[in-house]
Amino acid sequence: MNKKLHYRINCTQANGSAIMDMVDNALQITWETFIEHIDKQDLIDLFPFYYWRGYNKKEDVANLVIWEDYAVSFWKSKYKERLCYYVDHSRIEYIFY
After folding, report:
1. Whose CA is closest to 29, among 67, 71, 60, 82?
2. Cα–Cα distance, 96 to 74 (Å, whole number)
3. How many CA atoms lie within 13 A of 46 on its CB side?
4. pLDDT at 62
5. What single-letter DSSP state applies at residue 18?
6. Taking the model in full, what pTM does it have?
7. Which of 64, 28, 68, 31 lies closest to 49, judged by CA?
8. Closest CA to 76 of 47, 36, 49
9. Measured between alpha carbons, how far is 66 from 86 in angstroms, rounded to an integer?
């Protein structure tokens, strides 16, 4: 089994040129591929306002799941020469490596 990658930084905290390189060379991937490689709990902690089927019991939300949100996409790239996966959430990149 592959080692799961952890959330490290988002684009508002990171080096601008490194982010541009990462985005320019990224490959869009599916939710299924993304979640295979990253730590699920990190993602849940990062985005607690989503409904996580089988992950939490919050019933006070509109049952919106991250993989169905039109403002979210999933990517594979390199950040500072390191393999990374990131979620683009409303044009903010949340990077896992």
Report:
1. 67
2. 11
3. 21
4. 60
5. H
6. 0.87
7. 64
8. 36
9. 13
Residue 45, pLDDT score: 93
The two three-digit tokens of residue 59, written as one number:
């019933």
Contact, 14 vs 95, CB < 8 A?
yes
CA atoms of 7 and 39, how far apart (whole Å): 8
Q: What is the DSSP code (8-state) at residue 44?
A: H
pLDDT beneath 70, residues of the chain: 1, 53-62
Mapping DSSP to helix (H, G, I), strand (E, B) and coil, where does residue 16 land? helix
pLDDT score for 55: 53
Cα four-point dihedral sign 70, 22, 37, 13: negative
Domain boundaries, the chain: 7-96
Sole residue written with tokens 């490596």: 97
- Looking at residue 96, its amino acid is F
**Could you identify the residue written with the tokens 């490689």?**
37
